[in-house]
Design a protein that fits this description.
Layout (H helix, E strand, L loop, with lengths): L1 H19 L14 H10 L4 E6 L13 E7 L6 E6 L3 H16 L9 E5 L2 E5 L5 H12 L3
Antiparallel strand pairs: 1-2, 2-3, 3-5, 4-5
Length: 146
Amino acid sequence: MLKRYLFVGLLATVLVLTGCGQQTPTPQPFAQFNIEDVRNAFSQAGLPVSSMVRDMTAGRDAPLTFNDRYTFAIDRIAPDGGQVLFFTSDAQMQSWLSYISRLRADSETRRDVVYVYTNGNVLMQLNANLLPAEAQAFEAALAGIG
């Protein structure tokens, strides 16, 4: 009799567990990172950044698909530096990446978009006057977010 109850209990447990299945994971929002994440990453990496200012304008017919934009100076080449843009969707970021591709294809503007990096919803563009090792330090800091 005990064996019958054990068998019925085991069978019921198996049926309940197979009926539950796996839960669908909650999708992560595209806009995961913000300016504080970038500031913290730059600070932790000891990057020589100053004058980080919110600036919602964009030049050269750049798409206005970003959600937020900050410009900053890099001490060695100040007042030049870079910009970080934040997007709320992959499609918005892709329009900017297409814009960067067009600039790179033009011999007059190609030099301006040498250092462009992304991580999640963040696009960072650095001034072409940086040395490659300096740009790599910024790239590593951005990649370390999240």
